[in-house]
Specification:
single chain, alpha+beta, 6 strands, about 25% helix, about 35% strand, globular
Length: about 100
């Protein structure tokens, strides 16, 4: 559910493209917005992983000043921060010496 100016709206999201360790792309069916989420992964020079998360509208008529875009930005920023924190916690937990196999 998304919190919108007119109330909560249900959104169906489908995976459009997935290239392991490179790209994860989803598209949503929210009428008027046609949201898209793009997550790209790359390896930095220090061999660490960089993740880039972007939300887009597939509707070229929308601008960053539209009420619906502003509402979605606030909602998605909040959700993204929580999601990234959860993912970081999971990855750090899985890489801890406690969970590593003993040789």
């Amino acid at each position: 559910m998304l919190s919108m100016p007119g109330g909560e709206v249900e959104l169906e999201i489908e995976v459009d493209c997935c290239d392991v360790n490179e790209l994860f792309l989803t598209k949503g069916n929210l009428e008027g917005v046609l949201p898209q989420m793009t997550v790209t992964f790359s390896v930095n020079q220090d061999q660490s992983c960089q993740m880039n998360l972007q939300y887009h509208s597939r509707n070229p008529a929308l601008t960053s000043t539209c009420d619906i875009v502003i509402a979605l930005k606030e909602n998605l920023n909040h959700r993204a921060k929580i999601g990234v924190a959860n993912l970081k916690s999971i990855l750090e937990k899985n890489n801890s010496p406690i969970n590593s196999p003993q040789i």
